[in-house]
Specification:
The chain has about 325 residues and is an alpha+beta fold. The chain contains eleven helices and eleven strands. The protein has four domains: about 60 residues, Winged helix-like DNA-binding domain superfamily/Winged helix DNA-binding domain (Arc Repressor Mutant, subunit A, Orthogonal Bundle), CATH 1.10.10.10; about 50 residues; about 80 residues, SH3 type barrels (Roll), CATH 2.30.30; about 80 residues, Alpha-Beta Plaits (2-Layer Sandwich).
Length: about 325
């Protein structure tokens, strides 16, 4: 008898049951050329370990799935794949505080439980060698999460109460949700705001109530998040293309060179060790915050309006420290 691995046999049993032909241990064993006890053990493994919804239908004298469209995943994980799985599990920790975290954690737990015992200890040792330090995450109400993403998937309008940043009041809005984005520890929904009559970005953490309406909408054919946001620096974007030129001092120049900060960036190095970074963006809000994070090591050369904004911000910051000796 040829060697036939269990994984292939399980997929064979799954296909036969999925055909609704009500196979039994005898017919499966005969076709696969194994004993009926082997098939019985496979059935028990599929039901008890892999959570396959298998039932024996006495009237048909065979097995059946009591959940429609169930199919056993045809996935064989090699030991060389495990390191990537454990890294992905660590990356998942960045999504704590969101309703999706529990569901994804269960999926990873099922994958881990299905691994052979001989490889688990080694992979757990590998996992202990790596950590991911993520940005602080917002906490999102599970009910709001569910309502917003139902509206997104079903192209249904939403009625939301939204608290804009820097205010304590909320405003009622009707929103056509187009696209969801995870950015810097928060989830955002982008769509057409009927109150502002334009596309706006909303933080899910600032939505205090959400209700899915019966009315549907159509996403405009010319809307493409990756297209309209290609010149963005951060999450926000606008219509105007703005060329920004920043000079960085020698002490931070190596850090600027080692990363791609924006697809349009151009770096010019100078003899004194400083460098000039040029990039074209369509919104300045988050770029302004990024420049300020470099303190005195960054100076905006263009546009003049941005340099003036940053100068005003620095002067306002300085007044907060006038009483400090």
């Amino acid at each position: 008898m040829k060697y036939k691995p269990q994984h292939s046999r399980l997929l064979f049993i799954d296909r036969k049951i999925g055909e609704n032909s009500y196979p039994n241990c005898g017919s499966l064993a005969e076709e696969w050329e194994v004993s009926t006890k082997t098939i019985q053990r496979d059935i028990e493994y599929m039901r008890d370990i892999l959570d396959a919804p298998i039932v024996y239908v006495a009237a048909q004298r065979g097995f059946h799935y009591h959940e429609a469209n169930f199919k056993l995943p045809a996935m064989a994980i090699k030991e060389s794949d495990l390191f990537a799985i454990y890294l992905a599990d660590e990356i998942l920790s960045q999504y704590r505080g969101t309703p999706v975290y529990d569901s994804l954690s269960l999926i990873f737990k099922k994958i881990e439980d299905s691994l052979p015992d001989r490889v688990n200890p080694h992979c757990q040792q590998d996992q202990a060698l790596f950590s991911f330090l993520s940005a602080p995450s917002t906490t999102i109400d599970p009910q709001i999460w569910q309502t917003v993403f139902n509206g997104l998937r079903n192209t249904r309008q939403l009625t939301i109460n939204y608290q804009s940043g820097g205010t304590a009041t909320t405003k009622k809005r009707t929103l056509d949700p187009y696209h969801a984005v995870r950015f810097a520890g928060d989830w955002y929904i982008i769509g057409f705001c009927h109150l502002r009559q334009g596309i706006r970005t909303f933080s899910l953490a600032r939505i205090t109530t959400a209700e899915e309406k019966d009315s549907s909408f159509t996403i405009p054919e010319d809307f493409n998040f990756h297209g309209v946001s290609k010149s963005r620096f951060g999450l926000h974007w606008g219509q105007e293309e703005i060329k920004v030129v920043i000079i960085f001092q020698p002490s931070v120049a190596p850090y600027i060179k080692e990363r791609l900060w924006h697809p349009s960036q151009h770096i010019q190095e100078h003899d004194d060790g400083s460098l000039t970074l040029s990039l074209t963006v369509n919104h300045l809000l988050e770029l302004k915050k990024w420049i300020l994070s470099w303190g005195s090591q960054a100076t905006v050369l263009a546009p003049t309006s941005l340099a003036t904004e940053i100068k005003t911000e620095i002067q306002a910051m300085a007044t907060r420290y006038t009483d400090i000796p």
